[in-house]
Amino acid sequence: MIYTLTLNPALDRTLVVRKLVEEDTVRIISESRYAGGKGIDVSRVIRELKAQSIALGLIGGYSGLELEGRLINDGVMIDFVHLSEETRTNVILKEEETGKQFVISAPGPNVKPHEIGELYRQFRSLTDVTYMIMSGSLPKGVSKDIYGQLILTFKDKKPFIVLDADGDTLKRSLAFKPNMIKPNVFELSRLVGKEVKNEEEILKAATELNWQGIEIVLVSRGKDGLILCTKEVKLKAIGPKVEVKSAVGAGDSVVAGFVLAHSRGESLEECLRLGCACGTATVTTPGTELCHYETVMEILPEVEISTI
Questions:
Q1: Is 49 helix (H, G, I), strand (E, B) or coil?
Q2: Is 252 a catalytic residue?
Q3: Which of 12, 41, 164, 252 is catalytic?
Q4: What is the pTM of this model?
Q5: Least crowded by CB within 10 Å, which of 89, 195, 224, 246?
């Protein structure tokens, strides 16, 4: 079974207005609400691709209950630890006239030690995990060593572990050898301590990580596509040109497509192809809406895969 973990989920509200006008009433044209957070996005995309995962994480309050209900209605399997404090709400504000988008992200709840302990016990009790995708920022009260600690709970089970994090949280987790990481170019630069700009620099940085024990480094580069690096294989994926409406969730969609194909035993080339198709399809949807199955299938044969 594929599991995803989101330690700091959010209820995402996307508001569309004609234009922001200072000190005047601004009318909302449309509003949509989604269960958000990187691991939750992965689970939503896997479900959209007609497969299944189980979403784990920390939720609380009325916002948490709404998030939970929305995932249930979407057919996503869930098993959350409940907190005493409220799940955060993020606001995505889009101007219709200019196309500008503003993302206002809340910090999240303050997690209590006993709630972290409950999550830890839940992880130790998992018996059917074959893939674990850990992704996203940490709420207050959670140590930056949390991903490493949770990876240790699987020392006898050996699932395929994907880590999609940033900064010190990612750095401090590498010693525990996740099978795969998926930084974007900026996250990769922060991880290696120097700016990486071109393909050659990305490959060099990713290969160094491979030799440190990270089996797969998958780097997302926006419109420039994806670069996948293992010790033996270097691949590049480029999707077709599309109208970009929102890049929110594109990286998570890449992870979902890649992991789903990998779980089916497909080649790295085909895993990369589905990941790229999912990421490309997601940018064609507004706000925090993610990819649609039909769009992914249309884009899939148009993805170009090449060896670097």
A1: coil
A2: yes
A3: 252
A4: 0.93
A5: 195
